[in-house]
Amino acid sequence: MAKYQRILLKISGEAMAGQAGFGVEAGRIETLASEIAEVVRAGVQIGIVVGGGNFFRGVAEAARRMDRVTADQMGMLATVMNALAFQDSLERQGIATRVMTAFPIQTVAEPYIRSRAIRHLEKGRIVIIAGGTSNPFFSTDTAAALRALEIHAEVLAKGTRVDGVFDKDPLKHSEAVRYDEIDFQEFIERRLGVMDASAIVMCRDNKLPVVVFNLNRHGNIMRVSMGEPVGTLIR
Fold first, then answer.
1. 140: Cβ–Cβ under 8 A, 6 or more apart, which residues?
2. What is the gyration radius of the CA atoms in the chain, in angstroms?
């Protein structure tokens, strides 16, 4: 039986790019969609916040010369493309899905309205929330924390390329040590950087636990939903 009835899953844009590192890799999205569909069939309500780095990293050099607001708006549009790709794959798995965006783009997605998002979840639909917060200067981590609190998610699950939170970057340091559990204050004081600090503060102030886990290990989304000790628990 699932430990959590409702979770908010944060998926980076890079996770959707697969080995290519840019754009959308169909096989990677299908794998993720298959795992998420299995969790939904187990009775868990899932909201998803997607990033846009797989598209936006490709124009990163140009973005350095842009006004920050313009660059962030481009990033928010990238999240909509990822959300639509995810929706297509999930629908082919037989899972009802709604894409909602924080800014108006009615021809392809519903506007994000908190009460409507909750109703979709209660009806067993996956809600993919794109467009960040609709405001520049805020990361998609912060958007994930905000949406998780708004929809009353019981946990924020952040999928990454590594097995949790480490004392240093495990991709660069083989001796890096993973935390099984860490409290919010220590995470902030150590500046561990796996998640945006403003998002962590928001979760701390509202007592929302965060699980950081490896999205590339098959079955981890289900394990998180079941409350198994996967990755690092921040609380």
1. 10, 12, 49, 50, 51, 52, 79, 132
2. 17
Q: Which two tokens stand for residue 171?
A: 């991709």
Written as one string, the DSSP assignment of 155-211 is EEEEEESSSSEESS-TTT-TT--EESEE-HHHHHHHT--SS-HHHHHHHHHTT--EE
Q: Alpha helices, DSSP H only, in the chain?
A: 13-17, 26-41, 53-56, 60-63, 68-92, 114-122, 140-150, 184-190, 197-205, 220-225
User: 14: closest CA among 161, 136, 134, 137?
Assistant: 161
C-beta neighbour count of 25 within 10 angstroms: 18
Give residue-wise pLDDT tens across range 78-126: 999 999 999 999 999 999 999 999 999 989 999 999 999 999 999 999 9
Q: How confident is the model at residue 75 (pLDDT cuts 50, 70, 90)?
A: confident
Q: What is the per-residue pLDDT for 60?
A: 54
CB distance 147 to 200 below 8 Å = no
Residue 154: which of 232, 50, 226 has the closest Cα? 226
d(CA 148, CA 105): 22
Q: Where do the domains of the chain lie, and which CATH numbers do they carry?
A: 6-234 (3.40.1160.10)
